[in-house]
Amino acid sequence: MSLFVFIDILGTVAFSISGVLIALKKRMDPFGILIIAFVTAVGGGTLRDVLIDANVAWMRNLTYVYVIFASSVVAVIFRKKLGYIRRSLFLFDTIGIALYTIVGVEKGVASGFPPLICIALGTMTACFGGVIRDILCNEIPIIFRKNIYATACILGGLTYFLLMKTSLSQNLIVILSGSVVITIRLLAVTFDWSLPSIYGKKEMEEQ
Amino acid sequence: MSLFVFIDILGTVAFSISGVLIALKKRMDPFGILIIAFVTAVGGGTLRDVLIDANVAWMRNLTYVYVIFASSVVAVIFRKKLGYIRRSLFLFDTIGIALYTIVGVEKGVASGFPPLICIALGTMTACFGGVIRDILCNEIPIIFRKNIYATACILGGLTYFLLMKTSLSQNLIVILSGSVVITIRLLAVTFDWSLPSIYGKKEMEEQ
Amino acid sequence: MSLFVFIDILGTVAFSISGVLIALKKRMDPFGILIIAFVTAVGGGTLRDVLIDANVAWMRNLTYVYVIFASSVVAVIFRKKLGYIRRSLFLFDTIGIALYTIVGVEKGVASGFPPLICIALGTMTACFGGVIRDILCNEIPIIFRKNIYATACILGGLTYFLLMKTSLSQNLIVILSGSVVITIRLLAVTFDWSLPSIYGKKEMEEQ
Prior knowledge:
Chain A is built from 9 helices and no strands. The first copy, chain A, has 207 residues and is an all-alpha fold. The interface between A and B is medium-sized, with 29 and 25 residues.
């Protein structure tokens, strides 16, 4: 349990920092930076909770708010050094989406939704904060163009439900399906994978 | 009832395809295309259900998800032929907004909202998926600039409430008010109607 | 109570007009203008109500809808004269955000949220309508770049909770914390305050 919380917080830290980095690039002021960090970190979970009509987590538990605030301040102060720690950030972020995916899937299961919807909820939890971040910054959401991010979440959610049919313990299922998300994302980035293009050469040139 | 379901599915197909067409124009990858198709088809109903605090329909009934997935795949494969069937697509889409409008109005009535709000809910159900689609694609929503689309829904909703004061049967009211939406939209497109411009010649030139 | 309602309506008028002004600049048609006026005026409160799972106010009380409709029509007709009354508009708007902040804070308190979240709800109520307006118009929300607006709301909310620890009457607390919002905003605009920049000279030049 304590590991779970630890990883959850690491994920929130990583998402907040990724929000700060984009807000800095857009030359936002301190308030804007904080809001972007905030929606990046909690946007996905909030949409999920609104859709399944559950209580919104960060509104009842201030830990998230404090963590986001602290990470944002630290990220702004050390923004010139962030390049050096990008690698570890990327790891936190990857662990974060793995965890957020599982949290979303499990919330869906607990509310009695069908597996397909639970996988969608998991993916939404992990990815939608980034979508809101990009909309607020007036960009086409990166996830719609570079999608192994979401694909990793979907496959992790799928693994979760496949393993549920076995007699493995709940903890093991969580760890295994989380590992699937992490592995796919690491492989995808290492080997620069992307979904097969559906556009012919000619179509790309027309662009 | 069976006709109702048939038209509902046709509407979902038409909206999905309209989403795919825009995502293709933006050169999105397969995942992005699917998401855009999805929000175009269910975005309006989802916003409505969140606002009136009802269960979100597609989360409990997977038919929508399957229909959207299948239409998107077909639309991507036959995207070069879509020009030829645009006319029939346009018909589905028009029938779709008529139906979505009535569905939205009736959901509002069932939850006890005042007529004006029910008309807004109907219009939202029919039009808001397109708005989210345009926001995600980083465009000013087309509906804010070419609005006979929404006007048709509003007038259809109005017809619904006017007819409710008569002794017509519920089914007839649904068919008549749906026909109003369809007729206005067909006439508007045929004769290229738009709302009266409020801008003077000079103002347009300044632009 | 009657003063409260009067100010609430003034706030709605001011927000609607600010929406109309931006929609006109984007050369939207009458329907688009109305929608932008609408989301500017009720967007913040709607998000708040969805997040705290309360009934959405404007859906049960049509006064808001009528006020927004009437202000929009008047604003469009007299749009060339709006420059002259900008000063009074700005006052309404400032009074409006003060009131919206307090309304949001009190709704949060009534639902038992912690003070920090209540302040966020108040700020959201006052500022988020403008954020949705800017997103729909395809702009980076102005609030993320010119933030004394939000800062005034935050400090007003903070004042509210500090005064709650005293024995002042509820009415006095509302008036005092509302005044803080108004005073800070007036001072900020008069002296052109902004949050301290976090960007070095060099960083700004790189931009």
